[in-house]
Amino acid sequence: MATTGNNSVNAKLVLLGDMGAGKSSLVIRFVRGQFLEFQESTIGAAFFAQTLAVGDTTVKFEIWDTAGQERYHSLAPMYYRGAAAAIVVFDITSSESFEKAKKWVQELQKQGNPNMVTALAGNKCDLEDKRKVEVEEARTYAEENGLFFLETSAKTAINVNDIFYEIARRLPQAQPAQQPAGVVLTNTPAQRSQSSSCCS
Amino acid sequence: MHETEQHDLSDDSDYAAASRHDVSRSILRSDSGKSTTSEAGGSEVVYSKENVAIHPTQYASERISGRLRLFKQGSSLFLSWIPYKPTTDGSAVLQGQGSSSVPLEKDRYLYTIKSLPLADVHSIRRHTPALGWQYTIVVLSSGLAYPPFYFYNGGVREFLATLKHHVFIVRSADDANVFLVNNFRDPLQRTLSSLELPGVVSIANRTSFHKPRISMSSLDDPERVNGATYDGTSSTSEYSGQPKKSHDPARDISIQVLEKFSLVTKFARETTSHLFCDSHDGLNAYEKKQQNNYSSVKHTSSQSDEMEKTSDMSPVASDPLEFEELRLIWGKQRMHPLSFEEWTSFFDSEGRITDSKALRERIFYGGVEDDIRKKVWKFLLGYHEYDSTDAEREYLASVKKSEYQVIKTQWKSISAAQAKRFTKFRERKGLIDKDVVRTDRSIAYYEGDDNPNVTILRDILLTYSFYNFDLGYCQGMSDLLSPILYVMEDESESFWCFVALMERLGPNFNRDQSGMHSQLFALSKLVEILDSPLHNYFKQADCLNYFFCFRWILIQFKREFEYDQIMHLWEVLWTHHLSEHLHLYMCVAILKKHRKKIMGEQMDFDTLLKFINELSGHIDLDWTIREAEALCTCAGENGAACIPPGTPPSLPIETDMGLYPQDDEVL
Ligand SMILES: Nc1nc2c(ncn2[C@@H]2O[C@H](COP(=O)(O)OP(=O)(O)O)[C@@H](O)[C@H]2O)c(=O)[nH]1
Ligand SMILES: [Mg+2]
């Protein structure tokens, strides 16, 4: 949940998507301004924090980067539960990763926080010659599902800050502070009961 | 009701002998809770449980297993515990080949309880952890206690239920896990218990006392324990007994017994000693102290210095000061790595490793030098048997090489057209392709474009996913394989070493996460006994799932250290010296080290995960191993009891196992 206080908002954001789509690369580009050709795979989950100024409000993103493999899927609810925002990432050179992205969107619609701001990122847009997912296809899907869509490249940094900035802008800033930020595992009973995580 | 074997319990030597013979038979059925009337002796077995063990040292591998029984003679109830005899073909011998780990024969029988009248029992404390072995501690009216009985096959409940039926037993008002036997002092308890336990056969009307008989004769001559020659204290005349005196000679014997247990963990000692207090002055100081501590926690739970106080109630020494001392004593100095010369001294003329235990211990304390790592790992991982000869291993290598090729061909021969129609294969290959290109690419061995070693890494993982199709490929596996290939420099040998490693770590990648959950759960239990302030903090901060340690455990700290340190750490872990689960004690050590910061900064789950992830590259490996060693020794049996059998990297439990579940001895 996003929480407010003195013009500053804490917002929990989760990155979801197929393994290798570039989730870790996106967040590392955003947080550290770096890109590693051989960014190691994410084991378990990684947590980052980064602050953005939007108008006169500062948004402190608390970012959960998750492991993408199907096998770790059961752990994901632990991270997206209570998240104010999500970026669902796919790799534009892989139609399979786009299909996986759709599944994540569905799951968030069913299980996630209903006020969640969700973005769809078509990553690796620097690899135009290997493109498998057309911009229009992804954009149409995003519109139909109430997501906002950007093509990004963690490698060239295209649209990376923009996607986080756009999320920050769309956060319901007036949302009352219902609970302290950072409490992942305790949530409203309704949300908890929806979860199938065995880790809570 | 009466189909179980019959015994003449008045003749203990026969009983002991018989119990040895039908061990294998009787464990095949549920043999407890059935009554057996013996015609000759007039004694009736009302409870019998196999595989009830005592642990003379802190190592589960050195336990002495036996049969626990309750039997009735007339209106009196007796308890007996007879250790199994080690057999030449059998399991008891399995308990250890290394000289120091074998319980001495006289020790084995030292703990024998031939017939303990329940009239002499003051109380029974039960300990039934959600995971791990249940045990009970029997405390005598004299104030002495028997060592904990570990119920490897469960059955503590049944044991107490049976007792309930036959003796007057009440639950202590102070501690729900303490059952007072023959306690008529407290009228309130008496009333409660008579309400609760109708039809209790009281043994209070027994006129004579029998002293607890611990078979002394075995001390002098262990051979005599065997069969009919064992007659020392077994005659029925002893049952006539004498009124108990304050200078009961049995007491001295028991003290001897207790001294034998000087290595029994502090927890057991504390528990029993507090119960002693209880029995002598009628006060329950321990529980009162506990209550005080609990309430102090309640009121000041946010203050870390107050939290320290809670360590008082930790079952194992976790008082910070005391710990400092223990650390000095126990965290043994690390040694230099095992050299080639030293390594060769472990082999006999045909190339067998004669004392694998000593070798493993040596490696535990220093690791190995680079030039012999390739050879050593094959043994540590279990690809090579310690008692194999040079010739056998050479032969094995060639057989295994072609076997590997066969499996590899299974996917190599899949044509493009076939792959198009084989989604599962394409997916699997896709996962592996994605991961190998981002595995340790900064290491020279895997560096650069079109590095052939990256291709080999891929080929081995893909072959493994065919060898173990059910498990398939899972992220993290490439991390585990990378150092193995780096060390072996050979595709087939690396594959088989990886297979051996996955025999133990495979469950880490189970779809249902069961392997990880059991380790994380064991970890939480270990922290609970080894650092209760931190445990309480995690509990209050809702961090008890320990998910922040997921990466440490999944890939054995692979991401936390430099490459050469990883190799050192892994060979230390793979010795399974002290524990198969040293990695869990390492987790405790690191968390404990940062306890002040974690609690002082009131880290929540997110912050904690970030903090732990960022420790990568900043952990002192030698310190952590030493600390883990100390914690493991300190936790002793209680630590082991936190880790249920079959928890990775223990080998998975097989259902058709013999009498003694295979444990740390097996590599
Ligand atoms: N060309 C290109 N490669 C990328 C981009 N983002 C990530 N990658 C590469 O894709 C691979 C997987 O990236 P990673 O961030 O680890 O993906 P994750 O599994 O979703 O976290 C890595 O080798 C990255 O270097 C991008 O925008 N362009
Ligand atoms: Mg990642």
Task: Write up this protein.
With 200 residues, chain A is α/β, with parallel strands linked by helices. Chain A has a single domain, classed as P-loop containing nucleotide triphosphate hydrolases (Rossmann fold, 3-Layer(aba) Sandwich), CATH 3.40.50. In chain A, 29% of the residues lie in helices and 26% in strands. In chain A, strands 1, 2, 3, 4, 5, 6 and 7 form a 7-stranded mixed beta sheet that branches. The C terminus of chain A is likely disordered. Chain B has 3 domains: 307 residues, PH-domain like, CATH 2.30.29; 170 residues, Helicase, Ruva Protein, domain 3 (Orthogonal Bundle); 129 residues, Cyclin A, domain 1, CATH 1.10.472. In chain B, strands 1, 2, 3, 4, 5, 6, 7, 8, 9, 10 and 11 form an 11-stranded antiparallel beta sheet that branches. In chain B, a hairpin with an 8-residue loop joins strand 7 and strand 8. In chain B, helix 18 packs across helix 19, helix 18 packs across helix 20 and helix 21 packs across helix 28. Bound molecules: guanosine-5'-diphosphate and magnesium ion. The site of magnesium ion has 5 residues of chain A, from helix 1.
Features of this protein?
heterodimer, A: 200 residues, alpha/beta, Rossmann fold, seven-stranded mixed sheet, 6 helices, 29% helix, 26% strand, globular, disordered C terminus, B: 667 residues, alpha+beta, PH-domain like, Helicase, Ruva Protein, domain 3, Cyclin A, domain 1, 3 domains, 28 helices, disordered N terminus, binds guanosine-5'-diphosphate, binds magnesium ion, GTP binding (chain A), GTPase activity (chain A), P-loop_NTPase (chain A), protein transport (chain A)
